[in-house]
Amino acid sequence: MTPKTANGAGERTPLINGEAAPSYDENHVHHETSSTSTLSFFLDTKHTPGLQSNNFAVRGLAYSWHVTKVTLLSSYVNFLLIAVPIGLLAGILNWSPTAVFTLNFLAIIPLAAVLSFATEEISMKLGETMGGLLNATFGNAVELIVSIVALKDGQIEVVQSSMLGSILSNLLLVMGMCFFFGGLVHRGTNGHGTEQTFSSAVAQTTCSLMTLASASLVLPAALYAVLDQSDSGEKNKSILVLSRGTAVILLLLYVLYLAFQLRTHSNLFDAAAHAAEEGRTDAQGEEAEEDQDSEDEEEPSLGPAAAAAVLVVVTLLVAICAEFLVGSIDDIVESAKISKAFIGLILIPIVGNAAEHVTAVVVAIRNKMDLAMGVAIGSSIQIALFMTPFLVIVGWIIGKDMTLHFETFETVAFAVSVLVVTYTVQDGKSNYLEGAMLLGLYIIIAVAFYSVPSGVIDESFTNSLN
Questions:
Q1: Which helix (H) or strand (E) holds 24?
Q2: Phi then psi dihedrals of residue 47, to 5 deg
Q3: How do strand 188-189 and strand 429-430 relate by DSSP bridges?
Q4: In which domain of life is the source organism classified (predicted)?
């Protein structure tokens, strides 16, 4: 029996207008609903309260928060975004060079991931051709921004090293990790090992283009050696003319490559079509078709305007962080006794390609090797045929003599890497041993540049410019 007070009121006595006080169960449900709404407000990337409000101000604030939330939750690496304001503060307040370099180094990693996310969101609505062009332009935007800032600052050796390092990072580190981890997961059983497969036609085409890019670096180095032996006073001018002419030709070839990939021979770059042409009916072929269907049905999380706004804001943040990062390089080289070549060849590419690295390895583990190869080799082609010659032209415009004459050790490392990769991928098959070989070569090159005293390569390059 419900206890009553002196005035006859009990725990279920109506409080206002005949409404009964909520029971324990009703309070519990209300608490759970409140918790769910809170989680939805902060963690639900599909819906945000207030988006359907009739009030324009409320709807605008809700949409702004929705865009921010979707962007922040787009990648696990975004927890490093806390380094962005700290890195900017370090640069503005002139903290120690080591602190400025480290904080802005860490800040650019999540910014690169957000940049990649925003680019993919826009690409979903633009169709295959325009989406491909957009990805080609913004896929390596971080390296391009850092390189333009360094070029403006006169750090030509850093620019060249970062371009070469990005190519080596994609060809050896990313592809090596794809082959290694994908090969381990799909190695088969003992005595009956299996290999992962991808389009050999695509591999041969892209490796041919990388060999051409390698030749575009070897020829200026060879010409410089010949002119240096003859003690020609016009050697720097000759190298500059050769580099600018070569840059124009490489840019034209890149345009043809885009037409080849996106228009005339797009079937070669289609995983499902590749499986059908080879008559594969195995799980991998079926998986490729299912993945294609799911990609067609996938809807973007952000609208084009919101994604474009994110793209602009993040690009500005990357440019500012890159300014502080590049500005601290000279002091870092002097204090840490490491060469600019090591910073450009190893450290900067890791920052710019972090998001692409993770993506490529994940899809390789899922046995989507055509997509993994597209990320690894496709990015290398963009850098070799578009970004590097583009920077030569930019240097020409702003009065900085950027050439394709790289330091001899860097040129040899690049040529050897392209040769090894060509032999590795030409059969259209991969396994974990081949992955370990590519990773081993990358580590050898990294150790070689780390072990070289800071002044040797830098002085060698400086002397070649004089």
A1: helix 24-43
A2: -145, 140
A3: unpaired
A4: Eukaryota
Q: Give the CA angle between residues 135, 364, 113 to the nearest 5°.
A: 40
| Pair 378, 194: CB distance under 8 Å | no
Two tokens at 450?
């780390």
DSSP state string for 234-266: THHHHHHHHHHHHHHHHHHHHHHHHHIIIIITG
pLDDT at position 223 is 86
More confident residue, 47 or 439: 439
Q: Give me Rg for the CA atoms of the chain.
A: 27
- Specify the pLDDT at position 41: 55
Are 143 and 151 contacting, i.e. CB atoms less than 8 angstroms apart? Answer: no
CA distances from 444 to 18, 340, 365, 437, 450 (A): 81, 18, 25, 11, 10
The CATH class given to the 52-272+300-463 domain equals mainly alpha
Closest to 140 (Cα-Cα) out of 118, 120, 166, 158: 166
Q: Domain map of the chain by residue range?
A: 52-272+300-463
Residue given tokens 């008559």 in the structure block: 279
The contacts of residue 43 (CB under 8 Å, 6+ apart) are 69, 73
User: Where does residue 412 rank: exposed (0-12), middle (13-18), buried (19+ CB within 10 A)?
Assistant: middle
Residue 429 CA to residue 221 CA, distance in Å, equals: 34
Nearest 5°: the CA angle 360, 366, 367 is: 90
Closest CA to 301 of 39, 43, 46, 40: 46
Confidence label for 253 from pLDDT (cuts 50, 70 and 90): very high
pLDDT digit string, tens, across residues 177-229:
999 999 999 888 887 888 898 887 778 888 888 889 888 888 888 888 888 77
